[in-house]
Amino acid sequence: MRFRILGSLEVCGSEGSTLPLNAPKQRVLLTVLLLHANKPVSRHRLAAALWPDRAPPSAGGIIRTYASGLRQAAELGDRDRLPHLATVPGGYQLVLGPGDLDLTLFDDLTRQGRRALGARDAGRAAQLLSEALALWRGEPAEDITLDSDSMVLLTGLAERRLAAEEAWADARLQLGGDAELVARLQVIVAEQPLRERTCGQLMLALHLAGRTPEALDAFRTLRRRMVTDLGIEPSAPLQELHRQILAGDPALTQAPMASRGPTARSVVPRQLPPAVADFTGRVAQLKQLHSLDPAVIVVTISGAAGAGKTALAIRFGHQVADRFPDGQLFADLRGHAEDTPVDPMRVLHRFLRAIGTAPDRVPSDPSEASALYRSLLAGRRMLIVLDNAASAGQVRNLLPGSPGCLVLVTSRSRLPGLVAKDGAVPVLVQPLGETESMHLLRKIIGAARVDAELAAVTVIAASCAGLPLALRIAAERAAQRPGMGLAWLADDLATERRRLDTLTLGTDGYTQSVRCSPGLTAPWR
After folding, report:
1. Which long-range contacts (CB under 8 A, 24 or more apart) does 205-211 make?
2. CATH of domain 283-429
């Protein structure tokens, strides 16, 4: 293993000795490249990490100097072997082998452990997950001062560690549990006192160890905190586990944990679409989403057509997927499509089937279907993305009735009804600024082509008014004519009548068009 970031940053040389990488900026540069291992990282992204407040005018040259020094200090200059630091269009890419980074090894061992757990090989699952967790030496990159965008990634890593701890506890519970399991779960519960799943595991571990009074006390402590801090009761499955422990139910010592845990289910839907590869900006909105109170059930993500609401919801969804072990549901409600918006009953029936309801058992009555849906979601931890909603009424029957799940609703409307009546937290998506717009065009069109025609690209960015969809369509137009200059595209976009024609792509009118946004003007003009 050459690089370690699951704790303080450490770099080992080819001979196994620790390399003295002491320059602070080089350490920041390396950490950001490791967090995006085997993926290109633009110079703009690196500049934002190295100078969070304001990058100097000579940032590009300074980054080249840092990269050159990093190649030498960390033995990354040989292109014929792994690892090496490659220069790619617009930035750099740290190319690593399978065993070069502790984070990659952690993810691989965790995946193998989960597969073994699903195959009911608890012994192998416990061993693999224990090896994965042993790679953690502290908080990830704990000795590096990073920008807010990178800190969002580190928050996701901490959640992945917790999910692995819970999977390891599941495996150990299937093997019968012991004092080590109890002690480890007590530490996690102390750090995460409102995490119901871990508390349920601790209750069961204590009961199996003959410490039933302590198990019951753990439930009372959690309930008191939830009622006091959140104003809610523990989930129905956790209350059922408490009842079983009180009654001394023999099933607790016979059935495997996988079939009785408070969040275990046989069907785990994973419906989130792929995240946008060249996602740009939205640092403030992602930070707001990551800092949500655990009691929040509904979030509205609103903004103009083409502002990137769906991309933000999906990006965040993938970052926090591990927080929702019971899966993710996704529906495009087509609230602003040219044809009729989707009937919420159709979505409700599809969701019910996705979470294990037989088609012939789905009620035809809307109120009965909605009641069944809320009953099945009770105690589960699921992420539900309701995209492109027309109104609060279109989504209300798709909302869970108890905490544990999180619903992200995207809409051109701010949906004040959901905020006022359902306690939704509003997140507003504004157009991108000039720097971010140029950054996105640079990613898609290519740095060389953008730099060669900077004046035309500046006009293109301004004409797209900071709307990511408009910028992507414009970049696609440019990509269709790779041998031509970009002045023709700048001219088309500078005229409002031709601009609306230019910013319509394909036949899918509402998802690949910004015709619905007349009078486009750049917010920075």
Report:
1. 205/169, 205/172, 205/173, 205/177, 205/181, 206/182, 207/245, 207/252, 208/173, 208/176, 208/177, 208/252, 208/253, 209/177, 209/178, 209/179, 209/182, 211/182
2. 3.40.50.300
